[in-house]
Amino acid sequence: MSYRDDNQQSKLSAFFGSDTFKGLLPFIGLVVILGLMYWLTEGRIVQPKRLRLLLSQVYYPMIVATGVFFVMTLGSIDFTEGSTLGVASIVISVLSFYSIPLAIIGGILTGAAIGAVNGFFHVKFRLQSFIVTICTMYLFRGVCAYFTTETAIPASAAIKALDSDGLKIGITLAVLVIAFFLFRFTRIGNDVKAVGSGETAARFSGVRTDRVKFLTFVVAGALTGLAAFVNVIKVGSITATAGNQLETQILISLVLGGLPITGGSKVRFSNIVVGTLMYTVLNNGLVMLGFESATQQLIKGIVFLIFVALTIDRKALKVIK
Amino acid sequence: MTTGNVLLNAEHIDKRFGITHAVNDVSLTVNAGEIRALIGENGSGKSTFCQMLCGIYTIGGGTFTLDGQPVNVRNQVEANNIGISIIVQEMGTLSGLTVAENIFLGHEDPFMHRGIKDTRSMIREAQKLLDAYGFNGIRAGAMIDSYNFEDRKLVEIVKATYMKPKILIVDETTTALSQNGRLELYKIMDSVRADGRSVIFISHDLNEILTHCDTISILRDGEYIDTVNSKDIDEDGLKRLMVGREIGSAYYRTDYGKEISSEVVLSVKDVTVPNQISDVSFDLHRGEILGFGGLSECGMHEVGKAVFGASLDRIGTVVLADGTEINDIPSAIKHSIAYASKDRDNESIILNESIRNNIVLPSLDDLAESHILKSGKLNRFAQEFADKMQTKMQGIHQFVSDLSGGNKQKVVLARWLGKGSDILVLDSPTRGIDVKVKQAIYALMQELTAQGKSIIMISEEIPELLGMSDRILIMKDGKINGTFLRSPQLNEEDLIAKMV
């Protein structure tokens, strides 16, 4: 083989191996899945009614995913979103009979408190985050079940009356815009990324790594608490299954969106939006195509496996903190 | 050139990594019974060359012939089987295994009986080997993880040499070893030569090379330059060949008798870190280079961390001239203290980050305008200081993990230049760095002290301590054991006497 061939080949493979291309993959994936669903449902998926339904399923996962995005940028992981959402939803529902603002604040504080428990054990006892949050997931899932086993917990009529696309879009957009600003233009984003890329070196560069990690978990919890509010105004009453499996949905959405599970410098804010959309489109499409829920799970599993195998950065693979 | 039986013949060896031509048509021969040094700056291709020989990399082009047989091995075990073994630069032992399992890794067959491993006889054999090498302190049955870096290197040496390879490759191993460990290694190299076998020895320490090697081959930018006899050349001559131009005599400082300022900028009082250092007290003066020397476990590296507020469980005080106490890293950085760690890849820089983000990280608070960071401003800042350090890079957005050791260190220094730190704690600032960058770092240190900045230089290299320091503190067993002032009469033996 002559050198010229060698170079041409390496240029092409360099492009496919490059970060630019890897960054584009989630977008390509979203377009492919959208196109596929459009074709399979003969266009029904973009009917206004359908789109509205699709969007209504995007709001609260996107808010939750924003918080988890920061946690995963640290190179950590959080499995408590579902149970946090359940507990916070109970608090919001109960408080909604007294005052709506109180209910919102109560929900956010509940989420923040659960995040603080996670952060405390992760930072102070140097436990890996996935161990800590799996334990607390069971703990708070238990709390949620305890209050909801007998009967579902209803929310007040006043809070249900708030249900409107305008409010939900407003809250979601506000969260995204503020989070984007903090991530991109302040020390916060830099510090979180630095911890994810190299915690020891970040500490030696003056980043207060323990504080950063603790606060990130608190913020992620608080955002889940806020998402619980959006959830309550939509569903109106809380059952034992509230938020069930949310953690895996969020994790998969973010990975589909291109977020490297090792966190660090290669994360992109767009991972949140692209990933959540892709998950929702796929989910809705499968429902529209009339698959049974068992078949849906199976198909989802296969799609995720293929996507992850195609996109994951094997060079960066190491144990999650 | 000595004439003798050719043991290894390398013809037109070539290797590319993407656009980098790492080894470019290198041909050389190594005779039986010879210790051959392979030298060159970082990135000159010496490690790549050796790693092709022992199957770590595939051979890109050309042929190796060992004892008349072509070498075509796919991994290290196959290389071992035909008589080639290597001791690598970084950690070459596997954690989670015992010392014995590490020594016989890939060669377990003699201990296997119908698929079952006879652990006891393996440990017995390994212990015999360790004892024969004089490493009685290492237990063959113990987990490798219970030993420190140096002891693990000794285990690697046993692993690489017990089967009497025809060619032993020693790739920058000595930087990880203390004086004692080095002496052991030199003894083994001498015995390999006495047996009529050969050693290929890679090191940046030219003095070590001239003392222990017979012949020296020089590579530059992947190309073969020349092979010379050790007794026909000196350090300056080697540097000239490596760099390809006159390096000049201004390597270390040449001035003597500089008055040390009476102005104290930093005072360390009765600092103790459990199991590391005890009751260390000293003053750092304005414009001074204060050297710290000692054996690798003497505690000097912890002194650097203690000054930077990075030690856990520190007792005692570190106080600046204005009375500010330094107790943690953020306050150290805020009060103009910089730190370059010996463990560069883990503690000094974030490998999986861009050059830009590494340079701006300690200065983010200064660069923010009412808490907002602007990309353009950060880029200009990073570019300015990367350029000032003459960092060889494709651009400031290149990842640091792609850079050579010398360029990584330039990034480290660039960030602290950018921060404008007045007190620099440099731990092993030239570790694993080639002469050209070394010279630049020494020049920078002199420039900084001339501006009134103060430097604590911790070093395992005695010539560096003698050549650069205004004062030298020698540590032993966690305590300061001797103080020396800069003087042309001061020599290595004076310092070593206080170290051991």
Rounded radius of gyration of chain B (Å): 24 Å
* First-residue to last-residue Cα separation of chain B: 39 Å
Q: Quaternary arrangement of the chains shown? A: heterodimer
Distance between the termini of chain A: 45 Å
Query: CATH class of chain A, anyone?
Result: Mainly Alpha
Low-pLDDT runs of chain A: 1-8
Biggest β-sheet of chain A: count, sense, barrel?
2 strands, antiparallel
Which percent range fits the helix content of chain A? over 70%
> What's the count of strands of chain A?
2
CATH architecture of the largest domain in chain B: 3-Layer(aba) Sandwich
For the largest beta sheet of chain A, what order do the strands appear in spatially?
A: 1-2
Strand fraction of chain A equals under 5%
Question: How would you describe the shape of chain B?
Answer: globular
Give the number of domains of chain A. 1
Major pleated sheet of chain B = 6 strands, mixed
Average pLDDT of chain A works out at 88
**How many individual helices of chain B?**
18
Mean pLDDT, all residues of chain B: 90
Question: Mind telling me which CATH architecture of chain A this is?
Answer: Orthogonal Bundle
CATH class term of the largest domain in chain B: Alpha Beta
Strand percentage of chain B, roughly? 25-35%
Keywords:
heterodimer, A: 321 residues, mainly alpha, ABC transporter involved in vitamin B12 uptake, BtuC, two-stranded antiparallel sheet, 15 helices, 1% strand, globular, disordered N terminus, B: alpha/beta, Rossmann fold, 6-stranded mixed β-sheet
